[in-house]
Amino acid sequence: MQCKELNSNATTVIKTRPGYLQGIQVNNAGSAWTLQVFDNITNSGTAIGGATAFTVPAAGQSLNYDCHFSTGLTIVTSGTTAGSITVEWY
Length: 90
Prior knowledge:
single chain; four-stranded antiparallel β-sheet; globular; Jelly Rolls
């Protein structure tokens, strides 16, 4: 398993080929911070989580996806004040 912390408002390409998204751990929810997860290498395409952006849950929460993605994995975060999440994938 690989892990990457995201802690800014950005579009982040995590992986550029097929893989498996285990989950996302919320370290800090930020302020009005939102999240979208795509099976793509851009900030569009097939939504894995958040066809529209959703508010990042409270710190300590886990978003368990346990799903395959076929094109790539992109995470889009935005909001007033960025928080911190850790993405776990294979």
